[in-house]
C-alpha cells in the first residue's frame, strides 16, 4: 500500500507538471499569436425582435495555433488577462471591428452596431480611452457604431473609476452593454449607477426559460421590465429554439442573438448574412 501511495504521488506530480508545462506553452503561444496572425474575429448577428431586423453583430475572438489547434476563448482569455496580453488582443479586436464596419458601410448598412467584449483589465488600463479614440478616428468611424460589452464584475472592480470611465465613453457616443446580466451579485441596485445603454441577459436564463421553471420566467420578465424602466434595451443571448424566441417576444425583449439565427462566423460570411437581410 505504501508503494502504491508513493506511485500516486509520482503520478500526481507528473500531472501537475504537465499542467504547468501546458500553461507555459500556452502562454508563449499567446505571446506570439498576434505577430503570427493566429487570431481571427468572428461575428454573430443580433436581431431586433420587432420587424426581425438586423441590428448588429457581436465580435468574438478566435485563436488557431498550429500546435494547439483551435483554442476556445474561455481557455485563454484568463491567461491573456493575467499576462496583460489582453490589452493588445483587445485593440486588435476593435481594429478588426472597425474594418468590418467599413465593409458594412460599403454595402449600405450605415448604422449597424458592432459589440466588442472588454475585460476588466482592458477597462482599467489608463490608455484605453485614448487608444479607442485613435482607432476610430483612424478609420473615420462614429462612436455610435461600437458597443462595449462589460460584465458586472468588471465594473465592481474599482467601481468609481470604471463607472466614470464608462460614463465618459457613453458621453462620447459609444454604447455600453452589461454582459452576462443576472449572474453576478447586487445586479439590480447597481443598474442605476452604471451608465449602460443595454442589458444582456445571460444564456443560462434563456436556456431554462421554456423548461416550465416559473421562477426563471418571472426573473427574466422582471429583468426586462426593470431595464425598460431605466431606459435600457434588452438583449437575450444564447437563443437556440423558436419556443425561446416566442417567450422573449411575449416579454417585450428587444433583441436576440444565438444559434437559432447563426453561430459566430468569419466576416465574409457575416457580410453575406447582411446581404441576405437586405433582399429579404
Ligand atoms: P460571452 O461574451 O458571454 O459570449 C457569448 C458566448 O456564447 C460566445 O462563446 C458565443 O459563441 C456563445 N454563443 C452564442 N450563441 C450561443 C447559443 O445559442 N448557444 C450556446 N451554447 N452558445 C452560444 P465564445 O465565442 O466561446 O466566447 C466565450 C467568452 O469568451 C465570451 O463570453 C467572452 O466573455 C469571452 N470573449 C470572447 N471574445 C472575446 C474578446 O474579443 N475579448 C474578451 N475580453 N473576451 C472575449
Ligand atoms: Ca459578450
Ligand atoms: Ca454574455
Ligand atoms: Ca459569458
From TrEMBL:
Keyword Endoplasmic reticulum: no
Record keywords: Coiled coil, Membrane, Transmembrane, Transmembrane helix
Residue span(s) of domain EAL: 23-278
Record protein name field: Diguanylate cyclase/phosphodiesterase with PAS/PAC sensor(S)
Covered range of the whole protein: 500 to 779 of 780
Amino acid at each position: 500500500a505504501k508503494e502504491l501511495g508513493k506511485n500516486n504521488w509520482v503520478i500526481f506530480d507528473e500531472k501537475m507538471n504537465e499542467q504547468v508545462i501546458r500553461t507555459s506553452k500556452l502562454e508563449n503561444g499567446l505571446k506570439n499569436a498576434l505577430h503570427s496572425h493566429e487570431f481571427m474575429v468572428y461575428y454573430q448577428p443580433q436581431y431586433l425582435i420587432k420587424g426581425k431586423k438586423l441590428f448588429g453583430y457581436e465580435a468574438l475572438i478566435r485563436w488557431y495555433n498550429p500546435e494547439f489547434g483551435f483554442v476556445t476563448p474561455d481557455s485563454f482569455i484568463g491567461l491573456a488577462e493575467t499576462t496583460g496580453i489582453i490589452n493588445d488582443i483587445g485593440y486588435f479586436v476593435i481594429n478588426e471591428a472597425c474594418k468590418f464596419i467599413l465593409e458594412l458601410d460599403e454595402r449600405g448598412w450605415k448604422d449597424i452596431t458592432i459589440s466588442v467584449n472588454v475585460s476588466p483589465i482592458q477597462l482599467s488600463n489608463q490608455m484605453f480611452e485614448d487608444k479607442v479614440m485613435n482607432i476610430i478616428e483612424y478609420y473615420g468611424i462614429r462612436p455610435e457604431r461600437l458597443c462595449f460589452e462589460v460584465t458586472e464584475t468588471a465594473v465592481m472592480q474599482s467601481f468609481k473609476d470604471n463607472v466614470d470611465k464608462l460614463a465618459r465613453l457613453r458621453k462620447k457616443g459609444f454604447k455600453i452593454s452589461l454582459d452576462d446580466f443576472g449572474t453576478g451579485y447586487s445586479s439590480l441596485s447597481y443598474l442605476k449607477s452604471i451608465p449602460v445603454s443595454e442589458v444582456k441577459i445571460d444564456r443560462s436564463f434563456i436556456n431554462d426559460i421554456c423548461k416550465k421553471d416559473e421562477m426563471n420566467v418571472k426573473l427574466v420578465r422582471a429583468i426586462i421590465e426593470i431595464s425598460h424602466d431605466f431606459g435600457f434595451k434588452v438583449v437575450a443571448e444564447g437563443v437556440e429554439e423558436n419556443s425561446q424566441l416566442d417567450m422573449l417576444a411575449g416579454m417585450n425583449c428587444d433583441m436576440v442573438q444565438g444559434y437559432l439565427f447563426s453561430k459566430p462566423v468569419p466576416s465574409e460570411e457575416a457580410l453575406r448574412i447582411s446581404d441576405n437581410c437586405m433582399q429579404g
